[in-house]
UniProtKB/TrEMBL annotation:
This is Alpha/beta fold hydrolase. PROSITE patterns: PROKAR_LIPOPROTEIN. One of its GO terms (molecular function) is hydrolase activity. InterPro entries: AB_hydrolase_1 (IPR000073), AB_hydrolase_fold (IPR029058). The keyword Magnesium does not apply. Residues 1-30 form the signal peptide. Pfam families: Abhydrolase_6. The keyword Hydrolase applies. Residues 217-340 form the AB hydrolase-1 domain. Keywords: Hydrolase, Signal.
Length: 433
């Protein structure tokens, strides 16, 4: 057991490594945010209609101890007769309203079947272990008959605000150069994730209007990153075949919660636009987020709307320095704790098998050197973590580049290989339809 001085030293080494990975550091001033994150409340479960749904199921998390009326804080949509809902909020006392949205206006109208439910709050770790049909966890059943008396009534403007925020977060237009992707706001997402979320900065954004003739390419940045990390990739993207979508999330949240956000965003946009497939390209920790989102889809029994996943410099076995992140009194981002080797998140990440019809390409860099990563590394992540034998055996293609952890995203060789693999796999997918 290390003494106090040794504990403090390894603590600061872990913090320094995190700052290196995130390109900025303000851990001490963010301690209150981290503690709030530890106490955040998460609600998940199965929701279904008694008969075939005549519209999407809308699930609303509302705070009950507010005056003069209860206050809705989060809205999820299940675009089918049965599915899994995901809701999250700051510490408070909540209930859940679920209803069959027959007219599709995202507002509960008189006569639309619904149910009021006292959800069971779970830890954020529950994101990694979603409910099953046999678990009975928070199973909400919406009757097909007349709604029960006493269901909460929220004014239309309340629903409108939640729906508007959802539309802003899922599929709204964005530009790589805009302010929300600037370094100060990136750091806010890392060290003050609740503020980042409450200000409506996160989401899955389109850089141009949706085109049903082109395949979405979903770009997922790493810890302390933003869509600007993909600038060189986007510049060279073949826009005749592909359309770029960028996922922006507060990377200080637990990786599981970020995966839930990505899952919700993709599910919403597929419901809205009906795109048949997509390609996911993820850098660093973004690969862990993307795999977590895929796991949620598979565990829910849905068919993933993706045929090709490409990860770049992803720390599949974690980051050695994150092992010491919980030593000492100051909190660090939950995502950093999830990246400790052997963490619950990493241990469960590859338990769910990737379907054989989803192809996987693994990219890595070997051009860096760092004392924070053991053995050969890319300056941040060790080769051992980027290339575990289990992942290598499952990958359809593996490519290495003489680049470090950041420069690989601007490498012409990497981008050319990326484009080639995307076009080849798109051809395979098109032929198999």
């Amino acid at each position: 057991m290390p003494d106090a001085k040794a504990s403090l030293r390894v603590r600061w080494l872990a913090m320094l490594a995190l700052c290196t990975l995130a390109a900025g550091c303000s851990l001490l001033q963010a301690d209150r945010q981290m503690r709030r994150l530890d106490n955040s409340m998460y609600f998940t479960g199965i929701v279904q209609t008694e008969n075939e749904a005549r519209g999407p199921i809308v699930v609303v998390l509302y705070e009950v101890d507010t005056t003069p009326t209860p206050r809705p804080v989060f809205l999820d949509v299940v675009p089918r007769s049965r599915g899994v809902y995901h809701l999250a909020g700051a510490p408070a006392r909540y209930r859940i309203l679920a209803f069959e949205d027959i007219d599709g206006d995202m507002t509960r109208q008189p006569g639309e079947p619904g149910v009021d439910y006292e959800g069971t709050a779970l830890g954020i770790d529950a994101v990694n272990d979603p409910p099953t049909a046999s678990s009975g966890l928070d199973h909400i059943r919406i009757p097909s008959g007349a709604p029960a008396a006493g269901l909460p009534v929220f004014p239309p403007e309340t629903y409108a605000a939640l729906v508007q925020r959802r539309r802003q977060e899922f599929g709204s237009a964005a530009s790589i150069s805009e302010e929300r992707f600037s370094p100060p706001l990136i750091r806010e997402g890392m060290f003050q994730p609740f503020r980042f979320l409450e200000e409506g900065r996160s989401g899955l954004f389109m850089l141009e209007p949706y085109d049903p003739q082109r395949v979405p390419v979903i770009l997922v940045h790493g810890i302390g990153g933003s869509p600007r990390d993909w600038e060189h990739v986007i510049e060279k993207l073949d826009r005749t075949r592909f359309q770029p979508w960028v996922f922006y999330y507060p990377s200080g949240f637990s990786i599981g919660l970020s995966a839930m956000m990505l899952n919700n965003a993709v599910d919403e946009l597929q419901f809205r636009h009906g795109f048949p497939t997509s390609i996911v390209v993820a850098h660093s920790m973004g690969g862990l987020v993307a795999r977590g989102a895929l796991n949620i889809i598979l565990r829910e029994g849905r068919e993933p709307p993706v045929h090709h996943v490409i990860t770049i410099s992803t720390p599949w076995l974690g980051q050695e320095s994150a092992r010491w992140a919980d030593v000492g009194p100051t909190r660090v981002p939950a995502s950093w704790l999830d990246m400790a080797p052997g963490s619950q998140y990493l241990s469960e990440l590859t338990v769910v098998r990737r379907p054989p019809d989803i192809r996987y390409t693994l990219f890595f860099g070997y051009g860096g050197r760092s004392s924070f990563a053991s053995g050969n590394n890319d300056g941040v992540v060790s080769m051992r973590s980027m290339l575990p034998p289990e992942l290598q055996s499952r990958a359809n293609f593996i490519f290495g580049f003489d680049e470090d952890h950041s420069s690989i995203l601007a490498s012409d060789a990497m981008i050319d290989k990326l484009q080639m693999r995307m076009k080849v796999e798109l051809g395979h997918w098109s032929e198999s339809r």
